[in-house]
């Protein structure tokens, strides 16, 4: 019962913060340069990370912040729930996120996303989506933005393993920037298919940047997947499958 009450309190703050952002920040954001726009709208993500910890009794164990590179990179992380999409925005701003275009249609939330120049994909057209990721991803990196790509392509429940897509590694190799791997167990605290949150330790591991110069995307992807899955074996409370 206590987790239900905590979750209700959390969502009350969640939607209140979204409303405040929509009323106070969205009218101003279009008139700001991208960097200023990002700092303003990212206040919502900062609040959500803190509020989730306070309201739901979650403790953060985040290791590896010192490994985050100064320049642009391609961030690749496992995808279990909404929490990591929020945290990764505040971990290394500004970052351009590769996401499904349906998210841009959500009132307030989607309007704010549009202002941050994401790469929005129509997942019903995979060939076109891949071309879009490659061209726009390299272009965004060229402007100094980092790019966030979830190699699993969609949310995957804890304890389930899905084949990794190499689009993020291709973008990094073409742009000549490193890949920053990130592993976490956020889905164990914020279940992707349930609204009731669970207290406990949310662990995040940020890896050493993986260089791409002179390497193939397949080589880079293999290293990314091996590192993330190896970390998940250590930090997950739900057992990981050994093979796909």
From TrEMBL:
CDD domains hit by this protein: LPLAT_AGPAT-like (cd07989)
Domain Phospholipid/glycerol acyltransferase: 73-187
GO biological process terms on file: phosphatidic acid biosynthetic process
The protein's annotated pathway: Lipid metabolism
Keyword Transmembrane helix on entry: yes
Signal sequence range: none
Domain of life: Bacteria
Molecular functions (GO terms): 1-acylglycerol-3-phosphate O-acyltransferase activity
SUPFAM superfamilies according to UniProt: Glycerol-3-phosphate (1)-acyltransferase (SSF69593)
Annotated TM spans: 12-32
UniProt KW keywords: Acyltransferase, Membrane, Transferase, Transmembrane, Transmembrane helix
Protein name: 1-acyl-sn-glycerol-3-phosphate acyltransferase
Organism of origin: Vreelandella populi
């Amino acid at each position: 019962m206590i987790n239900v009450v905590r979750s209700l309190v959390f969502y009350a703050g969640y939607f209140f913060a979204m409303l405040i952002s929509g009323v106070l920040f969205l009218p101003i954001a279009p008139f700001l340069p991208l960097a200023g726009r990002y700092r303003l709208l990212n206040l919502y993500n900062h609040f959500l990370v803190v509020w989730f910890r306070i309201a739901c009794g979650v403790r953060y164990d985040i290791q590896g912040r010192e490994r985050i590179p100064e320049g642009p990179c391609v961030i690749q992380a496992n995808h279990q729930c909404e929490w990591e999409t929020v945290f990764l925005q505040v971990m290394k701003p500004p970052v351009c996120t590769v996401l499904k275009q349906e998210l841009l249609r959500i009132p307030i939330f989607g309007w704010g996303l549009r202002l941050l120049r994401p790469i929005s994909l129509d997942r019903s057209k995979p060939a076109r989506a891949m071309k879009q990721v490659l061209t726009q991803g390299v272009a965004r990196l060229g402007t100094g933005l980092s790019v966030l790509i979830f190699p699993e392509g969609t949310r995957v429940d804890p304890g389930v393993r899905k084949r990794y897509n190499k689009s993020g590694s291709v973008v990094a190799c073409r742009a000549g920037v490193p890949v920053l791997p990130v592993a976490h167990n956020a889905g164990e605290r914020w279940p992707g298919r349930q609204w009731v949150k669970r207290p406990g330790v949310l662990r995040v591991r940020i890896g050493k940047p993986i260089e791409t110069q002179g390497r193939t995307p397949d080589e880079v992807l293999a290293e990314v997947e091996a590192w993330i899955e190896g970390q998940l074996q250590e930090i997950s409370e739900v057992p990981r499958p050994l093979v796909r």
